[in-house]
């Protein structure tokens, strides 16, 4: 849950600027370093070789672009990167330490990924999770939260339901009214009605599932739908308006998701 990632594609200045095509190029290059052990994953120059995928060991990677002041040529270099979030099971296994020994930040990130109390307890206590779960729901004075003591004595609070409620109401497609003139950038015509209802992503993102400080709600599935409206257009050289029904094509957000701010690749 803590490995991030990498470069897929780089190219540097055209090769005529390089004295040689070997790896010791001195003047212009892009170099990728793994900061955890200082090893150089690669150094590239020229436009002939496109480096393959580079995956960092931790959540950092160092990219150094070195260029001198001579012969500046287009196009420079370009990086495509994406964040990797390995599955929880993989994350737990390499160390063989129980999850409860993880630093709190890491543990918090791991815990964020579970959707039910059962899965969570199973991850925390692989050997005795059933017992722990039973204990959790046994109405003894010490382990109960305030919600139980004040009021709903008959039933322990359903955490899975609370989590599901958050999912249902944060960052979801909602009814939005939009102005057709603004949306379609049509100033030559009048629509009636002037505004229509569309589905757009809305609601806040509290970053509950992500290892970042700020999240934003973005559409992950967009469809276009036709809407029939009345269109009024001035007749050129004539008095009166031309009236007709017309289909306008509008974007609807069908699905939405919270992603880290500044990262559009998810
Ligand atoms: C959005 O508006 C439509 C049309 O009035 C309505 O049927 C639908 O229930 C509304 N959806 C929500 C989530 O309010």
From TrEMBL:
Domain CUB: 27-84
Gene3D superfamilies assigned to the protein according to its UniProt record, in alphabetical order: Cystine-knot cytokines, Spermadhesin, CUB domain
Subcellular location: Secreted
GO terms of biological process kind: platelet-derived growth factor receptor signaling pathway; positive regulation of cell division; positive regulation of cell migration; positive regulation of cell population proliferation; positive regulation of ERK1 and ERK2 cascade; positive regulation of phosphatidylinositol 3-kinase/protein kinase B signal transduction
GO cellular component terms, A-Z: extracellular space; membrane
Keyword list, A-Z: Cleavage on pair of basic residues, Developmental protein, Disulfide bond, Glycoprotein, Growth factor, Mitogen, Secreted, Signal
Ranges where the Platelet-derived growth factor (PDGF) family profile domain occurs: 181-263
Signal peptide: 1-17
SUPFAM superfamilies linked: Cystine-knot cytokines, Spermadhesin, CUB domain
Top-level lineage group: Eukaryota
Ranges that cross the membrane: none
A GO molecular function held by the record: platelet-derived growth factor receptor binding
Family membership noted in the UniProt record: Belongs to the PDGF/VEGF growth factor family.
Protein name, as recorded: Platelet-derived growth factor C
Organism: Sphenodon punctatus
Lineage, opening ranks: Eukaryota, Metazoa, Chordata, Craniata, Vertebrata
């Amino acid at each position: 849950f803590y490995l991030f990632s990498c470069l897929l594609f780089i190219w540097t200045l055209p090769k005529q600027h390089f004295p040689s095509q070997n790896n010791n190029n001195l003047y212009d290059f892009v170099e990728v370093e793994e900061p955890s052990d200082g090893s150089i994953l690669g150094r590239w120059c020229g436009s002939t070789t496109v480096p393959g995928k580079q995956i960092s060991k931790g959540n950092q990677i160092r990219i150094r672009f070195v260029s001198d002041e001579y012969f500046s040529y287009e196009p420079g270099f370009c990086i495509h990167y994406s964040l990797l979030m390995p599955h929880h099971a993989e994350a737990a296994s390499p160390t063989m330490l129980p999850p409860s020994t993880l630093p709190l930040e890491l543990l918090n990130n791991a815990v964020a990924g579970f959707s039910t109390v059962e899965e969570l307890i199973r991850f925390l206590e692989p050997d005795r999770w059933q017992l722990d779960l039973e204990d959790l729901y046994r109405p003894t004075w010490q382990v109960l939260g305030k919600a139980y003591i004040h009021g709903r004595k008959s039933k322990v609070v359903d955490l899975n339901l609370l989590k599901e409620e958050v999912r249902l109401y944060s960052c979801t497609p909602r009814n939005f009214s939009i102005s057709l003139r603004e949306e379609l950038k049509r100033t030559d015509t009048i629509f009636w009605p002037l505004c229509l209802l569309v589905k757009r992503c809305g609601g806040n993102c509290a970053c509950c599932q992500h290892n970042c400080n700020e999240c934003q709600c973005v559409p992950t599935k967009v469809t276009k739908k036709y809407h029939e409206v009345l269109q009024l257009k001035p007749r050129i050289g004539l008095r009166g308006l031309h009236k007709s029904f017309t289909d306008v094509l509008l974007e609807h957000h069908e699905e939405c998701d919270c992603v880290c701010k500044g990262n559009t690749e998810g």
